[in-house]
Amino acid sequence: MLKWLYRFGSPKLFYQLTDSGIRWMALICASLFFIGIVWALLLAPPDYQMGDSYRIIYIHVPSAGLMQGCYYLMALMSFTYLIWGIKMADIVAQACAPIGATAAALMLISGSLWGVPTWGTFWAWDARLTSSLLMFFIYIGIISLRSSYESKESGSKLCAMLTLVGLINIPIIQFSVEWWNTLHQPSSQLSLRNTAANPPEIWVPAFILGFAMIAFFFLVLTLRVRNEILWRERRTQWVRQHLLGGDDNA
């Protein structure tokens, strides 16, 4: 297994394997976003309690899922880098951080906008909101820590350790609405169990936009990883040949 990890952890191999798939990823991402947004804004009916203000969940919920999913991947890559020292794992972890921070910011902003008609305020120091804000700062801290080190290896190891420590915040975000009395409602707005409150015309576009967000994540992640590979491997022969338009398989 370790041999397999090192083989497929080659920056050159990753760059070559992803070279032809970016256009398809972009097409799938754009198509899903178009279908999901049109359905969510024009075809989905108003909520029986919140009217049209509930439509912000089509941004808020996928952003929250992306924020957490991105961190899980960062933690896995950080663990892999610390244990086996695989370069690609560190590159992926580095590429994930700005995406996760953006998703966290989008979730916080959309949640605050939703809070005005729902709670009557932009912000409340609620357990779910506070732990989500902490996750945003963890992302920012990891990005800042990495950029503050001239030694890439030292910065990578410290960022990997900080990422693993920050992993404890994920279950707090997930279960805060069950552990404490919070303003934030439980994760049931799009539950399939309550089909009367959530007919298919409401939850289907949410799932489409959820998949669109996943496609967007992998598209941006792939582009960021490829750019980082070119930067880190800029002195190698295959990168020079690639940038000059030659055969990078040599």
Automatic annotation (TrEMBL):
Residues of the Cytochrome c assembly protein domain: 19-184
Main location: membrane
Keywords of the record: Cell inner membrane, Cell membrane, Cytochrome c-type biogenesis, Membrane, Transmembrane, Transmembrane helix, Transport
Annotated localization: Cell inner membrane; Membrane
GO CC aspect terms: plasma membrane
GO molecular function annotations of the record: heme binding; heme transmembrane transporter activity
Membrane topology: Multi-pass membrane protein
Bilayer-spanning residue ranges: 21-44, 56-84, 91-115, 127-146, 158-177, 202-225
UniProt keyword annotation of Electron transport present: no
GO biological process: cytochrome complex assembly
Pfam families, A to Z: Cytochrom_C_asm
InterPro entries: Cyt_c_assembly, Cyt_c_biogenesis_CcmC, Cyt_c_biogenesis_CcsA/CcmC
Purpose of the protein: Required for the export of heme to the periplasm for the biogenesis of c-type cytochromes.
Family: Belongs to the CcmC/CycZ/HelC family.
Name of the molecule in the record: Heme exporter protein C
Source species: SAR86 cluster bacterium
